[in-house]
Amino acid sequence: MPETVFFGVVTFLIVLGPLVILHELGHLWTARKFGVKTLEFGFGYPPRAGGLWSGKTPVFIDTETIYEIDKESLVGKTVTIRTVRDEQGRSLAVSVRPRAKGDDAEASEGGLIVTGKIKSIYGDQVIVADMLWSFNWLPLGGFVRMVGEESSSAVDSLGSKPRWQRITVMGAGAFVNLVIPFILLPVVLMIPAEKPVGDVTIVTVFPGSPADEAGIRPGDQIVKVDGRKIENISELQQAVTVKLGAESTWEIQSGVPNIFARPAEPQYQYSGDIEKVTLIPRWKPPSLQVVAQVSAPYTEMSLARARVFDISVGLNTVLRVVDEPSDTLYEISSEDAAKLDPPASLGDILKVVAEAVDAGEQISLLDARLHDNALGMKTTVQEGATGVQISTENSRIENKGLSLFEAFPLGWRHAIDTAVLTRNALTTTIIGSSNPQFEGPSTVGPIGIGQLTGEIAVADAGLGAKIITFATLAATLSLSLAILNILPIPALDGGRIFFVFVEIARRGKRISPEREGLVHLVGFALLIGLIAVISVQDVTRIIKGESFF
Q1: Cα 549 to Cα 341: distance, rounded to the nearest angstrom
Q2: Is 199 in contact with 394 (CB distance < 8 Å)?
Q3: Residue 424: enclosing H or E segment and its boundaries?
Q4: Is residue 529 part of a domain?
Q5: Residue 245 falls within a domain, yes or no?
């Protein structure tokens, strides 16, 4: 556990840190391109550990300039210069004093002050390095501090720029995050890596499912889905999940049962002919209740048939320890319970699990079946989007990387798939979908991401496989950041862009900076609250010992 936590922190910073920094560099580059005054680029979040000053901003001085610092030793000092605009529009120093707390905030709001380090003095000019590259103690990303993000009156402020430039600056970070997967995923595909391949074969088909209605039968091999070559189960799952609710075309080889096959021989024969069928993967596949006798065929399934699809199901999942059981499906005697491994005693309620660990709370599936064969770990059978169960025949491992010309088209398709999968995951959360493809935590915060990266870091896999996994995760997170930031959520980039569109709709009439700032403040507070709630869920999952794998 300590090893997982350590590597979780390290790999979290390695994976997520660059994505946030690149996001902020997108804001910085476009802001500078449009002449927006940038005051600070922060690596991490305050408190500040140190920083470097850059830039060559001239400030003119004259005989009326007031010095609250030793005038003879200005060079190399960090100062705050209060200025006014002279008749030529130049910055003229009114006073020069040591930089103090609160000056950064005033500069950000568009106040006529310049903060920075004096680089040199030439005649009537003071050259100030007024752009701070700060290094901060909380290494969770970065930020850009610009002049007047909401104010249109401050010189060189973001708020004073044309609407299209403001939208570009605020959307640049999300654009960078959007581009990263289209570069990273093709590079990943060019790295030689082990890949499981084989013949993806239908094992069972649920009655009345899309696959059943399309004429797909056990033994059929899936060759392609929507033009995608299918060589393993994960490729089929991705191809199906990106087409939820839409028509999907499958190319299959029909399997003919080999009635004379011995146990070690293929159970089906294939002619090589390819047949195309169409079906629509379901957003909300049904969950069938396992019962002794079926009375509602569309919502129930008999125990015998259910175990064809899932051997772990049963009619009940919990046993109560009593003196004299009246029904072995729900009760077990204290005498028999004492013989279990681990043992239980009178009054205990035992949950059926794969392997029992907690005495008095769990009973293994094997022991439960020995007590009553109708017991199981769950009482429902969950269908998938298409209603099939699959396996991989003739499995083998191939180690290869794609060429440049193969990797980029396929990598771009994977990037688009990732965007679609992110959208579909959000949709399933909203509509309450039971699709098993989206099982697991619906939301994960920074702590959960750290747990995930830590588990990958300590997993029993080669360094190359881990690097590829981390790169793929980084591409997915980058795309998620792009989507999240562009949504019209107050305090995020999309929320600020939304106010620009409101301004356009009002024919140039702006929401007051005070009101807009208040909306972003409330949105930020709610966002922090949401992150706190998700973090509690992440911590609870870790305490319970639950894993992503």
Answers
A1: 26
A2: yes
A3: helix 404-431
A4: yes
A5: no
Judge contact between 236 and 390, C-beta under 8 A: yes
Q: Are 320 and 331 in contact (CB under 8 A)?
A: yes
Q: Does 377 map to a domain?
A: yes
Q: Which of 438, 433, 427 is nearest to 282 (CA)?
A: 433
Q: What is the DSSP letter of 127?
A: E
Angle between helices 446-457 and 513-543 (to 10 degrees): 40
What's at 97, amino acid-wise? R
Residues in the chain: 549
Give dist(CA 51, CA 132) in Å, integer: 6
Mean pLDDT, rounded, of the chain: 86
Which residues, other chains included, contact 497 with Cβ-Cβ below 8 Å and sequence gap of 6+?
167, 170, 171, 486, 488
Q: Is residue 9 part of a domain?
A: yes
Residues 444 and 415 in one domain: yes
Q: Answer for the pair 287, 387: CB distance below 8 angstroms, yes or no.
A: no
Condensed to tens digits (0 to 9), the pLDDT of residues 210-252 reads 999 999 999 899 999 999 999 998 889 889 989 999 999 999 9
Do residues 40 and 131 make contact, with C-beta atoms less than 8 angstroms apart? yes
Cα 325 to Cα 334: distance, rounded to the nearest angstrom = 9
In whole angstroms, what is the distance from residue 412 CA to residue 419 CA? 11
Are 236 and 200 in contact, with CB atoms under 8 Å apart? yes
Domain check: are 377 and 508 in the same one?
no
Look at the block and give the residue holding tokens 């003071």.
126
Sign for the CA dihedral angle at 345, 348, 352, 353 comes to negative
* Placement of tokens 């010992």 in the chain: 545
Q: What is the dihedral of CA 303, 309, 310, 314, to 10 degrees?
A: -10
The token duo for 455 is 């588990």
Helix, strand, coil share of the chain (percent; to 5): 40, 25, 35
Token pair 């069928």 is found at 277
Please give the residue that has the higher pLDDT: either 325 or 194.
Answer: 325
| Paired tokens of 285 | 């596949």
3-state class of 499 per DSSP?
Answer: helix
Of the residues 333, 353, 382, the one at which a domain ends: 382
Three-state DSSP class for residue 545: coil
**pLDDT, average across residues 321-327:** 93
Question: For 396, which DSSP code?
Answer: E
Q: In this structure, how many other beta carbons lie within 10 angstroms of the beta carbon of residue 433?
A: 19
Note the helical H segments in 126-162: none
Nearest-angstrom CA–CA distance, 341 and 367:
8
- Residue 169 has a pLDDT of 95
| Chain centre distance of CA 436 | 18
| Same-domain pairing of 493 and 418 | yes
- Nearest alpha-carbon partner for 104 in 68, 143, 74: 143
What tokens appear for 532 in the block? 């706190």
Q: What residues make up the domain containing 325? A: 287-382
